[in-house]
Amino acid sequence: MNINTIILARLRSIRHALRGWKFVLKTQKNVWVHSLAASIVVALGLWFQLPARDWAVLILTIAMVFTAEFINTAIEAVVDLASPGKHPLAKVGKDVGAASVLVAALSAVLIGLLILGPPLLLKLNLLFGK
Asked: Which of 19, 49, 75, 90 would staple 83 via disulfide (CB 3.0–4.6 Å)?
């Protein structure tokens, strides 16, 4: 396999992944909620001038939530394909996939509070003189 073939294969893989990302953005309303939350977190992190370690944790946390949402969307699509009718196991698959997003999102809220809470309280105290 020559280098051009390898590069073209990687580019095709990236194109497939970007199509999947576009599909999630077009079809999943919660992704927009996650995007808004991530934007707020990034803005606060910039305002607080967080250290690199905190940024690393926040980036991993944001990625965890999006990854859970993307995997959940994939599970839903595959379940719909395999079981177009209602089936109790199809419901279990979809519910467990949704639960993974819930766990990721709740964990992200806790991590966000741990990292952003103290500097936010400090800034608010400085702004409002407490």
From this structure: 90
CA distance 71 to 67: 6
Within the chain, residue ranges assigned H as helices are 3-27, 29-48, 52-82, 88-128
Domain of residue 59, CATH code = 1.10.287.3610
Residue 28 backbone phi and psi in degrees, to 5: -110, 105
Q: Which of 34, 65, 68, 69 is catalytic?
A: 69
Q: Is 69 a catalytic residue?
A: yes
Instruction: Note the pLDDT tens digit of each residue in 21-64.
Output: 999 999 999 999 999 999 999 999 999 999 999 999 999 999 99
